[in-house]
Structure formats: structure tokens, C-alpha cells
Amino acid sequence: MTMGPSRGGIFATLLALVRAGLGGKAASGKQFVSWIHESDFLRAIDFLIARKDIEGVVNVCSPNPLLNAAFMRDLRQAWGTHIGLPAARWMLEVGAIFLRTETELILKSRRVVPRRLLGAGFTFEYPEWPLAARDLVKRWRASPQHK
Questions:
Q1: Is pLDDT above 90 for 36?
Q2: What is the pLDDT of residue 92?
Q3: Which of 29, 48, 93, 119 lies at a CB distance of 3.0 to 4.6 Å from 69, suitable for a disulfide?
Q4: How far is CA 128 from the centre of its chain?
Q5: d(CA 124, CA 128)
Q6: What's the whole-model pTM score?
């Protein structure tokens, strides 16, 4: 998931849950979340375009996926709240209907690591979620579209 503060993105959706006090773990919270800060995503794409020697599939994600429970905890901390009600599986299924999405996007564990990208020498500005979450919250709060 590419995380950016723009309206309508996945970060905005997750932050809305946190702001409403619903940003707890999803189901067991033990599913891995692979993510990337939008800045690193754009830099990685530029890096790959410039590197003609890299061909084939390249995972473009942070080198540090984490469990959903920790991911949401760190987002709550970045926002400045400690309250986050967990969502049971049935709640996620109801919510998915309203969001016109699938619960698989939330419940399936994805532990992806960008080995080829790292091996080629790419360095991340935001390799850890807490740092990325703080930056995204700061940028979300500063954005005129959210005032």
C-alpha cells in the first residue's frame, strides 16, 4: 500500500478510522502489512527507470513490513491518540460492503520485502512505519484540503 496524505487514499481511510476512535487492530491483528511512503515510492520508480540493468519483477515497498496491530498502534501514536477499538472479522465484512471493497485486502497477510531494490543500492527515506506515519500525519494536518 502506498501511503500518502491525499484525500481518498488508503492512508486517509485508515486515518479516518483512527480519528473516529476505530483504529484498532483488524481481526487478529497478526496479518502482515506491507507499505511504502509515497516519497519512497516515487524515488524507487525513478531509480528503477534510471537503472537499465534491472529487469523483471521488483517489489516496491518498505523493507520493514509489520503486523496490523503494530501498524495501527503506530498510526494512532502519530495522530496522538491511544484509543483504537478493534474490528472483528464480521465488522470488517460489513464495512467492506459500504466501502465497496473486499475484506481480503485487510485480512490477508502480506510480508513483502524489496530485496532486489535494496540489493541494487536503493536507500529509503522512510524505512520504518512510525517515522513515515508521523510525516504523513504532519502533512495531512498541514494540507488545506483537510481544514
A1: yes
A2: 87
A3: 29
A4: 11
A5: 9
A6: 0.91
Helix (H, G, I), strand (E, B) or coil at 89: helix
- The residues spanned by each domain of the chain are 2-141
* DSSP classification of residue 29: S
123, β-bridge pairs: none
What is d(CA 76, CA 70) in angstroms, rounded to the nearest whole number? 10
From the CB of residue 108, how many other CB atoms can be counted at a distance below 10 Å?
10
Per-residue pLDDT reduced to its tens digit, 57-108: 999 999 999 999 999 999 999 999 989 999 998 998 888 887 777 887 778 8
Q: Please state which architecture CATH assigns to domain 2-141.
A: 3-Layer(aba) Sandwich (3.40)
Euclidean distance between CA atoms 56 and 92, whole angstroms? 35
Averaged pLDDT of the chain: 93
What's the CA gap between 6 and 133, in Å, rounded? 14
**Percent of the chain predicted with pLDDT > 70:** 99
- Residue 6 CA to residue 139 CA, distance in Å, equals 9
Residue 49 burial class via C-beta count within 10 angstroms: exposed 0-12, middle 13-18, buried 19 and up: exposed
